[in-house]
Amino acid sequence: MRSHILKGTVFTLFFLWVSNLIFAQEGEPYIHDPSTIMLCDGRYYTFGTGGGGLISEDGWIWHGGAERPGGGVAPDVIHIGDRYYMTYAKGGGGLGGGHASNVYVMWTKTLDPKSPDFGFNDETIVASSDGEEDCDAIDSAFLLDPTSGRLWLSYGTYFGFIRLVELDPGTGKRMPGNEPVNIAIDCEATAMMYRDGWYYLLATHGTCCDGANSTYNIRAGRSRNVTGPYVDNMDVPMLMGGGKLVAAAHGPLIGAGHFGLLDLGDGIQKFSCHYEADLRKSGYSVLSIEPLLWKDGWPVAGENFREGTYQIQSERSGYALELVVDFVRMPRTGRWFRRENNEPVIPVPHQTLADVEKDWPTGNIDIRMGDFMVRPHQKWTITPVDSVGGYPGSPYFKITIAGTDRALAATADCEVVTVPFFTRAPEQLWRIDQIIDGTYRIMPKMIPGSGEPLVLTAVGARTPTLARFDPESDNSRWNFKMQY
């Protein structure tokens, strides 16, 4: 958090707000400086400045209830072996105490405050700043290097350098004799991750703690070595203020900060952050979970799926999902290949639902894939469904033929059909996740009589079915093209 911009009444408002952080995406997602989201015993947890944090059963609806001791600012959490390590800072940030601060690490066997195994142990100081040096020891975050098993901690703010120290993954304590390494300036609230031989430093730029006037945004640099040097896509070192944009304000969400990776496997990655102000929610700071995409070796924010009417297109073949119904020809109007004798040019209306629906069967109708011709049996309206829960970052959706209540549904034999009416049954609820390449995975909430996690998949060029997701294949990748 960039605290030196806080003056006068803003200080007072900040302290009043921090003292009420135990509020609890949907539900009560009010939080500032959220930690990396962690799954523990089937529930999702994130922790924030001021103590406490949020809990979710599904990753979509969040409420208060997470607990941690120590108060302070900007925690992070990581799971190693049978321990959850927690880091946070006290002091610093300019919050009345200048920039003198300590970074702490402690551990617990579980994040569930109701479990008999809950309780934080061995709190220890792993980094400090004295208030005069070019560093402010807050905003700490973990990286467990998947190539070596070594544990690292980044920390720091706009007041000086971002630094990196090594910890012992068995204890969470500072490795003996380890000295901090300077890796960036002009940023704060850093996080780190590893992908395809590169270490990425995610850093928050801009100003915070000023509500809808905050300019927070998340930027990235990368290095072949964990200790740097980190440079952006234009080879500007992060030690000179560089950073490629990853996420920023959009729509009613202002001031993106505090990146946290949420890797769901199978090529589905998301990230958490807070927005300094959600204009839909009285301008409060809120938790957000969004798709993480990769382009030319760089992370970039995707977009959570939006309600609308779409063509659903197979990445494999380019064919469009459609009902298995008879093709209804449009009327011929004049000579289609040549205009002669100054014949008038008039618009040809699109085929409408009323032109074709009367000949459709009244019961279930199968689906297939075909050439897209902007016909009613190829247009799908996708709408979020209230009060049925969700999954990380999103509610479940219903998928219906536009202008009708005919809904896409999974069947007990692991096929897909459309049923005449949407009934809110779990086999009619769909999860739509953006894959790291920007395409989408479409997955039913439940398949009747089956617990298998199957997804909408193309068999050959024209036959859809439900099958295991193969992240190396285009068979289960789909695109959505908005229809107007």
Residue fraction in strands = 35-45%
Mean pLDDT level: 92
Q: Quick one: CATH superfamily of the largest domain?
A: Glycosyl hydrolase domain, family 43
CATH topology of the largest domain: Tachylectin-2, Chain A
Quick tags:
484 residues; mainly beta; Tachylectin-2, Chain A; Trefoil (Acidic Fibroblast Growth Factor, subunit A); 4-stranded antiparallel β-sheet; disordered N terminus
Set down the secondary structure blueprint.
Blueprint: H1 9-18, E1 26-27, E2 38-40, E3 43-47, E4 53-56, E5 61-66, E6 73-80, E7 83-91, E8 100-108, E9 121-130, E10 141-144, E11 151-155, E12 161-167, E13 181-185, E14 188-195, E15 198-205, E16 217-223, E17 244-247, E18 253-265, E19 268-278, E20 284-295, E21 298-301, E22 308-314, E23 320-323, H2 353-356, E24 365-370, E25 380-384, E26 390-391, E27 394-395, E28 397-401, E29 407-410, E30 416-419, E31 430-434, E32 440-444, E33 454-459, E34 463-468, E35 478-482
Parallel strand pairs: 1-5
Antiparallel strand pairs: 2-3, 3-4, 4-5, 6-7, 7-8, 8-9, 10-11, 11-12, 12-13, 14-15, 15-16, 16-17, 18-19, 19-20, 20-21, 22-25, 22-35, 23-24, 24-30, 25-28, 26-27, 29-30, 31-32, 33-34
